[in-house]
């Protein structure tokens, strides 16, 4: 059995890690941390996990006796925890942005403070780095928007038929984590659509980093908060550098993702729906329509807490530990 610990288990991604790991046949959860809920049974905070006897502890990673630790902690907090864990020989999957950038200066520019503890990490997008993830000691789990955006753009970069993309994303409120703010306060976000970080969201350089390793691509990205709890729907607009038909475009995606267990390519004209992926680790990619001016529109849908965070983290754990990569994740979404 793989002994697993979760730091930040009282948050939203921590709760989702618990939901998937509870029934994983090769995993024993040995410790779950929360500073504010020390000695509280997890079902008091995650009421859906009724049958769990786990209790939150405010303990250091060194006291966990784990083979692998998930750090489901905010950026800035992870970098204070991860190096110490790695020193003890325990592998880490970090869900924050702290280890996603190849160049620490890019991190510092977009996150606005110095990185205290840079480490070598593998970017944890299985569709790109499956073999590297298997051997990694530290996996930097991708951001939620980048995951959705990359599902909709990687095949274009691979074919080198794109130079610029405009990504317009709509996200559910759980993307902001468990702590309420004035933006996520119900009267402010319900019945409303709120664009934010219109030209300077920190997930933009993450998307650009990964696409540009394949082919130089300029990324423009604007997120919007919409009144749903889960999900990210990304609409990608781009003028392709080659004239191709919609069906050829769909075929490019079919071929690129054909062996991927968690990506489903919809037929030309079919539109991905948040409700079809909610609760699941699947990404749906569709549309593949090209207008009279040559603008191609590709749309992806993911659950930000699952494929965009904890499901992808469990996928990475399965790869790192040689388990069946679909173990405990092979469930459909919750339509309607
Ligand atoms: N929400 C999403 O859709 C999403 C998607 C992809 C990635 N992420 C990333 O995943 C990470 C967790 O996100 P989340 O949405 O789960 O956040 P969250 O709901 O705010 O939970 C984070 C948890 O971390 C704990 N924590 C905070 N500071 C800590 C520290 N210094 N040391 C130890 N524990 C600390 C807190 O628990 P206690 O206060 O009880 O200790 C809190 O419950 C973030 O880096 C986020 O950017 C989130």
UniProtKB/TrEMBL annotation:
The keyword Cytoplasm applies. GO terms for biological process: L-arginine biosynthetic process. It is an enzyme of class 1 (oxidoreductase). It is found in: Cytoplasm. It catalyses: N-acetyl-L-glutamate 5-semialdehyde + phosphate + NADP(+) = N-acetyl-L-glutamyl 5-phosphate + NADPH + H(+). The keyword Repeat does not apply. It comes from the Archaea. Keywords: Amino-acid biosynthesis, Arginine biosynthesis, Cytoplasm, NADP, Oxidoreductase. The active site is at 144. Pathway: Amino-acid biosynthesis; L-arginine biosynthesis; N(2)-acetyl-L-ornithine from L-glutamate: step 3/4. Its EC number is 1.2.1.38. GO terms for cellular component: cytoplasm. Residues 3-136 form the Semialdehyde dehydrogenase NAD-binding domain. Catalyzes the NADPH-dependent reduction of N-acetyl-5-glutamyl phosphate to yield N-acetyl-L-glutamate 5-semialdehyde. Belongs to the NAGSA dehydrogenase family. Type 1 subfamily. This is N-acetyl-gamma-glutamyl-phosphate reductase. It comes from Methanobacterium alkalithermotolerans. The lineage of its organism: Archaea, Methanobacteriati, Methanobacteriota, Methanomada group, Methanobacteria.
């Amino acid at each position: 059995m793989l002994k697993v610990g979760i730091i930040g288990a009282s948050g939203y991604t921590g709760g989702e890690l618990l939901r998937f790991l509870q029934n994983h046949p090769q995993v024993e959860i040995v410790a779950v941390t929360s500073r504010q809920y020390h000695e509280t049974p997890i079902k008091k905070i995650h009421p859906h996990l009724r049958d769990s006897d786990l209790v939150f502890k405010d303990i250091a990673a060194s006291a966990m006796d784990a083979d692998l630790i998930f750090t489901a902690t905010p950026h800035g907090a992870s970098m204070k925890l991860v190096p110490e864990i790695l020193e003890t020989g325990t592998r880490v999957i970090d869900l924050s942005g702290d280890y996603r950038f190849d160049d620490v200066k890019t991190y510092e520019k977009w996150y606005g403070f110095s990185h205290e503890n840079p480490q070598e990490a593998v970017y944890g997008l299985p569709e790109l780095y499956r073999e590297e993830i298997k051997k990694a000691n530290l996996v930097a789990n991708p951001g939620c928007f980048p995951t959705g955006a990359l599902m909709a753009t990687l095949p274009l970069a691979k074919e080198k038929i794109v130079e610029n993309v405009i990504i317009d994303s709509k996200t559910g409120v759980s993307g902001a984590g468990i702590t309420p703010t004035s933006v996520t306060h119900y009267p402010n976000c319900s019945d409303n659509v709120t664009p934010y970080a219109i030209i300077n969201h920190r997930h933009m350089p993450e998307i650009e980093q990964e696409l540009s390793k394949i082919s130089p691509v300029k990324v423009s990205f604007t997120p919007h908060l919409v009144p749903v709890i889960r999900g990210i729907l990304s609409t990608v607009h781009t003028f392709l550098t080659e004239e191709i038909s919609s069906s050829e475009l769909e075929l490019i995606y079919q071929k690129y993702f054909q062996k991927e267990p968690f990506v489903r390519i919809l037929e030309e004209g079919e539109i991905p729906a948040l409700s079809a992926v909610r609760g699941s680790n699947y990404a749906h990619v569709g549309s593949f329509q090209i207008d009279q001016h040559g603008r191609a529109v590709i749309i992806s849908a993911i659950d930000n807490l699952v494929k965009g965070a904890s499901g992808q983290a469990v996928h990475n754990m399965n790869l790192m530990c040689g388990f069946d990569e679909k173990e405990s994740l092979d469930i459909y979404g919750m339509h309607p």
